[in-house]
Design a protein that fits this description.
It is a single chain. The chain is mostly beta strands. The protein contains no helices and 15 strands. A four-stranded antiparallel sheet has the order 4-5-6-7, with no helix packed on it. Strand 6 and strand 7 form a beta hairpin. 37% of the residues are buried.
Amino acid sequence: FHLRDVKFLSESNGSIGGTGYIINTTDGGNSWTKNYHSFGTPFQSLFFISDSTGWATGGQYGKVFNTTNGGLTWNNQSTTNGGTLSIFFISDSVGWVVGYWEHIHKTTDGGETWTTQLTGCSAYDLHSVFFTSELNGYVTGDWGRLYYTTNGGDNWSVKVISSAAVLESIYFIS
């Protein structure tokens, strides 16, 4: 069981995504319960917009799962074109997933359907996505690539920070 992503909604409630499992705690990590099992789905990324609503994604098949009860149960919600490594939502309805082969997908209906915004079909994988508003977003990837948008992902620009680096994560405090 490889642990991929940990998210705590409060001091007591948290979830961990890993190879084929999502596990949860309600006592600050003293005990854990396996709440979802999916053979072959490495849950790479978890994201919660509130104490109850969240999403999980990961793997070569582009699966997206959601929860409406803080991670106690998960539903296989949809599939994107291309494997996914990271998920981010700015609201209950608007979110993005990024992943293998330079794919970026956007949803405006809470993950029920996805629109492809970028598909470079290159050897570059995109590892992390973060939006500071519904318009301004950032994606990190292989070969030191930092992608950014100022129009919600309709157009993306890229800056190479260092071609020798793999940018695994991006996060803004405010």
